[in-house]
Each structure stands twice: as structure tokens, then as C-alpha cells.
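ugh ok fine here u go
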Amino acid sequence: MKTGIVDVGGGMRDIYGAGVLDCCLAHGISFDLGIGVSAGSANLSSFFAGQKGRNYQFYIEYAFRKAYISAGNWLKTRNYVNLDYGYGTLSNSDGEYPLDFPAILSNPAEFQIVATNAVTGRPRYFDKTEMKQDDYGAVKASSCVPVANTAYLIDGIPYFDGGLSDPIPVQRALDLGCDRVVLILTRPKDFRRDPEKDRFAARVLRRKYPNAARVMSERAHTYNTELDAAMALEQQGKVLIVAPDEIEGMKTLTRDKEVMNRLYQKGIRDAHRIEAFLSDELQA
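structure:
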């Protein structure tokens, strides 16, 4: 049996996913494949590096620094979130909390990161072997929220958040040979995206990146369709959806330490379902 884990991201809400993954590390739960979207790519980077607690530090401490997320960043660079600070200055080998990149490479698990090509609107799946020490461009590209940030360039190609083009890449995990998949959501299972919420961003993108605008306008339909498919697979025993029952009003860039700590603890508690799911898999 090949097992996979998908973390869909969700900005600050994905401290919930950090809790899930820290619980997995604490209990020695491993996976053969991981696919990360947006903040989920950063979460899984620390997970596959074996760095329990690292993601928590980024959410609870570093995310509150003006150098990382602030209106000042926007005024200076048109990037509300300084991706180079989070996944460069802090994460590089000489940074405050380096990512153990050699550990990621030596980990036998496959690891892919989803970003959206801003020109074509199609998903790009970066493999961990395409990253280098102190060059985590794939994570930055996957986490680049349209409007809040300008497109992130890799080899001259602009990218946006992977959630535009493949927000719940369970099918990608199945296509890569997974028999069972753990899916981490950062909204309740009954949440469905409203297309009205994406219309403003689509209008902003349309002039420079018409295909990115198109997938942005279609994002609600894509998310809802992929979630419905995942729920059908859960009924078949092929997918386990781990999702918070309540997010207390948390949006992508909401920073509220009390709520974030509660989401992290929810993630730890909810992760205990994973061991039983994988045990059933081994018996199947």
C-alpha cells in the first residue's frame, strides 16, 4: 500500500495542518508521498525534514513580524507577505530557523509542491528534487496569493498560489500511485467556496494574466468539485479527510494567537484518526 498526504494550505488557518503533522511526527507516522498547496507546502517541508514544532514557530511568532507580513511591505514592494523573508531569510541555512533541506532529500518519501503558472493558468507540480539548499522558490510560488502579492518568478515564469488551479490535489496523489490518501483541510468539511468571493481578484488579474484570472474565477467550482470527489473516495475507504469543525472566523491572513493556538490543538487531536486509518489500510 502506498500512502499519501495532501495539505491544502489556507494561510494562517493552516496552523491546523501544522498541528496534524506535528502529531504525526510525535507518533512516528510517515507517508510515501506528500503534496503541498500554498502554506501546506511549507508545512510539509518541515514535516519531511522531521522538524517537529518548526511550523508552529512560524505561525505563532514569525508571522506577527512586520518584516514578514505588513502593509509596509505592500507599500514598498506590492507584496503584503514577504515570501523571501519567510522562506529565505528565516529558512536558509544561516537563518533564524533553518529548514533541514538535506533531511528532506534523504527522506525516501516523494514530495511535490503545487503552484499555478500565471501565464497558462495550469498547475505546475514541483518535485523536491527541483529545489536546492537555500533556494525554496517552489514554496514561495505555491504560497503567492494573488492581489496580496505580485507573481513570483522562477526561471522567468510568473507563478501564483497552487490553490487557484488544483486546490485539493487528491487525484494527483492517486495518479502518482497512492492507494490511500490523508487529506488535510483548513475549513470544515461542509464548507463550499462561493464564486462571488473570487470575482474581485479575477478582475485585478485579468489585464496582465487573463488565464490566471480565468482559473481564479473558476476556483470555487474547482474546489467544490474536488472536495466532493474526495468525500466520495472517503466513503470508499480510500481517503481520510482531517478537517476542523470550526475555524472561528479565521481568514487566510487573519492573525489571532488565541484562535490559532486552538486550531493547532484541534489539529493535534484530530490527527489521532490517522493512525487507525493507516492500520485499517495495512489490514486490508
